[in-house]
From TrEMBL:
<feature type="domain" description="Antitoxin Xre/MbcA/ParS-like toxin-binding">
    <location>
        <begin position="98"/>
        <end position="147"/>
    </location>
</feature>
<dbReference type="InterPro" id="IPR046847">
    <property type="entry name" value="Xre-like_HTH"/>
</dbReference>
<protein>
    <recommendedName>
        <fullName>Toxin-antitoxin system antitoxin component, TIGR02293 family</fullName>
    </recommendedName>
</protein>
<dbReference type="Pfam" id="PF09722">
    <property type="entry name" value="Xre_MbcA_ParS_C"/>
</dbReference>
<dbReference type="Pfam" id="PF20432">
    <property type="entry name" value="Xre-like-HTH"/>
</dbReference>
<feature type="domain" description="Antitoxin Xre-like helix-turn-helix">
    <location>
        <begin position="31"/>
        <end position="91"/>
    </location>
</feature>
<dbReference type="InterPro" id="IPR024467">
    <property type="entry name" value="Xre/MbcA/ParS-like_toxin-bd"/>
</dbReference>
<dbReference type="InterPro" id="IPR011979">
    <property type="entry name" value="Antitox_Xre"/>
</dbReference>
Amino acid sequence: MEATAQPDYEGILESLGRSAAVRADVQSALDVHRLLAKGIEGKAIRRFAAYYDLSSEDLTQLLGIKKRTLQRREQTEARLSPGETDRLWRAAVILCEATEVLGSRAKAASWLHRENRTLGGARPLDLIATEAGYEEVRNVLGRIDWGVWS
């Protein structure tokens, strides 16, 4: 896996509850852009959390929202804002790639929470809410995949 490789759209959509909350056909980056601009249903948050066994605290950090806002968002069919959708999509991409590289969803979720020397001692979870941090975390996953000490 390279940082520039096309993400596994099927795996990402599966983690978000493709049939329940994400009704989109995603084949390209342009399709992703359209999905993010439109927003996905808030109940995708609940599906994503269950898929990777993430806590409410993890989700508030990933999405950059308060706990009460999270509770409202995950219990509705209303669409997330484009910004919230983008942050959820980035988290899904990272966890899907980490699952592929590390071999299981449990290992990927655990890796997300562990401090990483290559990331300056930060946890991947702490970085993926921004585009720059997201790219750095993807680079680390690419290095792990290629067998480079990370």
